[in-house]
């Protein structure tokens, strides 16, 4: 309770400062500026204050930046600028907690343990270590105290959302459901046992792609019982760097993009796995055109029925089956009283017709998603997240890779995977990763 009280006091102060800054911006602006530029100024202030609010607020904002089904595109773009950087855990503290969580002195586990992290985020830091046999591994350590801070913030987040959920402004929006989804997604990123299982599942799913690498966990060093304490040991990937299209060249860029799409489509349509966080910090391209996927903290395992519905929706969209596309969308929602079924089908049909048979350069997934979600909102529909997550995962991926290969045929590369999934036997429910 003390942790909650402290966080409430701190977050209240941040909220008060945000309100004062927004009010000052409003009062100092002319009428023309208010109409033309103030929304952008207000968003910039909000983004800055979110960063001051701490890791939970940043994580919530990052997740919301992908939720085009809930927020306008300009708000999503502003939230996507937030970065999850934080000072490293002090070297002495890192060594101590690594030994405690691994259950043995580091000298008995590793030949070397580099105290300066290769990556330092708000939830965890990642360190390079070398085993006695020369194998290099990455050791991911959850920050001490971060679990209690995030738990307190999420409790306040849920309390605040419950207070506004029934107000006139929020009425009709899936506020409680959205908050529950966001809270679960953030809590999952603290669960390294779950992440280890997700890493193994993703690595297995893409094992047939020679140009795609996913670091595998080392349960012999950190078994599930100990990863609950906040440590994950996995393969170390050397040579990670942010490379531009100019750094790679056209051929390597094209190979990397097509390998990424192939792997993601196979995961989604065949295995029912969605990596919802393939932004440039989790997807790395190499000069030979190979790809590395990192961080499985936000991987969703779809129930078989949800995977089938999403797969069929894109298959039917490609063949122009408007009626079936509408049926599939409606199967994932709870239509409101007085729902205009005919009007919804008419508008969705127009959307499907506008993209059916379009050439690769003409199809924009972002534009399609914005229009789809806009139609749903206008008719009072809010889709099940099991249907939304795959589309949002593809949107994040598209944003990360499109500049590397602007003419990539997103639809064409999906077709073989769609065909195999549509005519394959039904998959049993997946139990490896909690969904």
Automatic annotation (TrEMBL):
InterPro entries: ABC1_dom, ADCK_kinase, Kinase-like_dom_sf
Organism of derivation: Virgisporangium ochraceum
Positions of the ABC1 atypical kinase-like domain: 82-327
This protein's name: ABC1 atypical kinase-like domain-containing protein
Domain of life: Bacteria
């Amino acid at each position: 309770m003390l942790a909650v009280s402290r966080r409430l006091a701190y977050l209240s102060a941040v909220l008060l400062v945000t309100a004062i800054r927004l009010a000052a911006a409003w009062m100092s602006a002319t009428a023309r500026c208010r109409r033309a530029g103030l929304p952008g100024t207000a968003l910039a202030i909000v983004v800055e204050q979110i960063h001051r609010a701490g890791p939970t607020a940043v994580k919530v904002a990052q997740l919301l930046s992908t939720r085009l089904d809930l927020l306008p595109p300009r708000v999503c773009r502003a939230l996507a600028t937030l970065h999850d950087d934080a000072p490293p855990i002090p070297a002495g503290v890192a060594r101590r907690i690594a030994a405690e969580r691994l259950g043995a002195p580091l000298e008995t586990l590793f030949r070397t343990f580099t105290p300066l992290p290769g990556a330092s985020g708000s939830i965890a830091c990642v360190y390079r270590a070398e085993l006695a046999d020369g194998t290099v591994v990455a050791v991911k350590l959850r920050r001490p105290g971060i679990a209690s801070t995030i738990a307190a913030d999420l409790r306040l987040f849920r309390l605040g959302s419950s207070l506004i959920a029934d107000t006139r402004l929020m009425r009709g929006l899936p506020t409680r459901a959205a908050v529950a989804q966001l809270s679960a997604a953030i809590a999952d990123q603290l669960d390294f046992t779950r992440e280890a299982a997700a890493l193994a599942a993703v690595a297995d799913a893409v094992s047939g792609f020679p140009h795609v690498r996913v670091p595998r966990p080392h349960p012999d060093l950190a078994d599930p019982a100990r990863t609950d304490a906040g440590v994950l040991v996995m393969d170390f990937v050397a040579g990670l760097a942010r490379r531009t299209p100019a750094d790679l060249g056209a051929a390597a860029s094209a190979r990397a993009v097509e390998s990424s799409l192939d792997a993601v489509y196979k995961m989604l349509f065949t295995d029912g796995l969605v990596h919802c966080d393939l932004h440039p910090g989790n997807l790395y391209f190499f000069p030979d055109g190979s790809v590395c996927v990192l961080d499985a903290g936000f991987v969703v395992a779809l129930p078989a029925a949800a995977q089938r519905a999403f797969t069929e929706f894109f298959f039917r969209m490609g063949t122009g089956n408007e009626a079936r596309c509408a049926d599939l969308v409606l199967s994932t929602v709870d239509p409101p009283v007085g729902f205009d079924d005919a009007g919804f089908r008419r508008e969705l049909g127009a959307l499907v017709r506008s993209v059916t048979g379009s050439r690769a350069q003409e199809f924009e997934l972002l534009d399609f998603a914005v229009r789809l979600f806009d139609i749903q909102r206008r008719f009072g529909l809010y889709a099940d997240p099991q249907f939304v997550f795959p589309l949002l995962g593809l949107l994040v991926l598209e944003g990360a890779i499109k500049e590397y290969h602007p003419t990539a045929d997103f639809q064409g590369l999906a077709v073989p995977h769609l065909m195999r999934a549509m005519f394959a036997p039904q998959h049993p429910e997946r139990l490896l990763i909690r969904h």
